[in-house]
Amino acid sequence: MVAFGGGHGLAVALAAWRGITPELTAVVTVADDGGSSGRIRREMPVLPPGDLRMALAALAGDEERQQTLAALFQHRFGGSGVLAGHPVGNLLLTGLAELHGGDTVRALDELGELLGARGRVLPMADEPLDLVARVETADPDDPARVRTIRGQVAIAATPGRVREIRVSPADPQVHPDVLRAIAEADVVSLGPGSWYTSVLPHLLVPQLRAALAAATARVVVVLNLEPQPGETDGFSPEEHLTVLRAHLGGVALHSVIADAESVVDRRGLLDAVRDCGAELLLASVAEPDGAPRHDPERLSAALASVVGRR
């Protein structure tokens, strides 16, 4: 199976999928321009490592040594010097890619071996991407109600609703291993995660979208538990799905998973899912304590229940 996404949303999806299959590939967004990743990509001609690092850590093996290495990967340097805020894994991945002449895929595979990764991590494109969005601001007195915002961090921080998003460059090169993984997949998953900056970007890359449209895999969408400030303010679950549908470009959807307690208008969501030609599974997939996060074990059970459906 192949999981698309980035950040914490992809990490929880991988934690859920690894309980179902060892044949797992994460295809990770490379548009992060904030924090440690932003600092690294401004200083060096490399892919932003943060989301790739998080995916590797999520797939780390269960042995004590492997889990210790995963914790080291995630550890951020403290203090106030030049290393402050950098996760160790970001520097390791960047250094190993440089050692291999810029071959990030080789670096990811070698680090995955060290971690005993239960699956593989690949970048969605072979070059760093920028996100460019048209955002309708929340201020009704703003003479320029719709602004063009560039950069993942700026988009997430701009009050209002995203009306359109694209990637730059518009048609980046995709590694052959990514296209091969999609062609061979039985299942592909999208979400959860930042809708406009982690989920949709994969559908904006022409080679990825074409590969998904041609694939025979079952496509499963995991909806977010709540709207994300700065990206999907006020969005209902069905609005998330409507936005996704507008970007599919021939990619078929088969199953949509939503948290039963987070859906207010079940009929509206069911109609939106049926409009996509998919089936809806409402299940308890959030943390039992009520926190707005997916629980990996609950999500794994929900994913397992739809994988066998055709």
Quick structural gist:
This protein is an alpha/beta fold and 310 residues long. Helices cover 42% and strands 16% of the residues.
What oligomeric arrangement do these chains adopt?
Answer: single chain
> What is the CA-based Rg, rounded?
19 Å
Helix vs. strand class: alpha/beta
- Please provide the ordered H/E string of secondary-structure elements: EHEHHHHHEEEHEHEHHHEHEHEH
Are there runs of 5+ residues with pLDDT below 50, and where? none
Average pLDDT rating? 93
Strand content: 15-25%
Give me the count of strands: 10
* Envelope shape: globular
Enumerate how many helices there are, as a single number: 14
Largest sheet: 7 strands, parallel
- Helicity range of the residues? 40-55%
Distance between the termini: 15 Å
Order of strands, main sheet, comes to 3-2-1-7-8-9-10
Write the layout of secondary structure elements.
Blueprint: E1 2-5, H1 7-17, E2 25-28, H2 35-43, H3 50-58, H4 64-74, H5 88-99, H6 104-115, E3 120-123, E4 130-136, E5 146-150, H7 152-157, E6 161-168, H8 176-184, E7 187-190, H9 195-199, H10 201-204, H11 206-214, E8 218-222, H12 237-246, E9 255-259, H13 266-275, E10 279-283, H14 296-307
Parallel strand pairs: 1-2, 1-7, 2-3, 7-8, 8-9, 9-10
Antiparallel strand pairs: 4-5, 4-6
Helix pairs in contact: 1-3, 1-14, 3-4, 4-5, 5-6, 8-11, 12-13
